[in-house]
């Protein structure tokens, strides 16, 4: 096999602080891998700008001008980490034999990528990066994340413990990913479903190099809820179970109350009445909430909206020498260029 073309896909949302470092580190890594004859000289890094509000795109675009390895994909608006990553994977697969995805903050050890590639040479099509430890995460993040994995497992979602979105996939695996048409895509859960020859590589997770986490608690919670409700109907079953149990309990209580009535003891009641009203009301609300969650999912899926919209793709443009085939994109590129030079 000739040396495979590798593309490293990096989703970026407001990452201006860390991007210059990331670009340097990844470029250096590609050069090394190339010298070790592990990858083709045509290997690239594809930065996906997920609708950033800061100078993220300018940095990507500018460095693409003098670094042939740097390519950029600008999404028209913020669509979230998973969808941005997907946009990158689908674009990258057109130009690569294998694709590695990694976060912009380089918390995942880029040295593991060398191991990924070696595994790819050994014939593995999916290589999952798995964290050894979580020493550098805050106490809160560590425990919420661990709880999340455990909960997912309990709910019957097949995900690999401590594997995030740091992985290598062959071109063929990414192509298969396209067949999963769902909008609520939770990559960690989907990738195991693709099957193919899969293996793990262990690494240590570091601290964010610069900038702040783009996953505040609110996003984390919605991510967890999405992950569960996209894969599992356990919550709905649980709700039915609770409903059934409370029905049984109310039957027993009903019998008891009737008994009280016939024995002449009817003055009791207000306390049990008011508590059961609250109890049942609460249960019903929970049930409706869960059902609503799924209906919301169905609603989103049925609309079949595009997952993301690409604004600019520097892969497809002959630049910095701009061709005259596509006037509009050239105009946009020039504008982006000017912003960058301010
Ligand atoms: N990210 C993104 N879109 C978003 C939020 C995050 O593309 O709406 C990217 C972000 O730039 C980073 C990756 O997703 O490359 C993971 O985010 P972050 O490192 O902030 O998450 P954490 O490691 O704290 O869970
Ligand atoms: Mg991070």
TrEMBL record:
Transmembrane segments: 238-258, 270-295
Membrane topology: Multi-pass membrane protein
UniProt key word Transmembrane helix: yes
Protein's cellular compartments: Membrane
GO CC annotation terms, alphabetical: plasma membrane
Keyword 4Fe-4S in annotation: no
Keywords associated with the record: Glycosyltransferase, Membrane, Transferase, Transmembrane, Transmembrane helix
Listed InterPro entries: Glyco_trans_2-like, Glycosyltransferase_2, Nucleotide-diphossugar_trans
Recorded GO MF terms: glycosyltransferase activity
Domain Glycosyltransferase 2-like: 7-177
Protein name: Glycosyltransferase involved in cell wall bisynthesis
Organism: Litchfieldia salsa
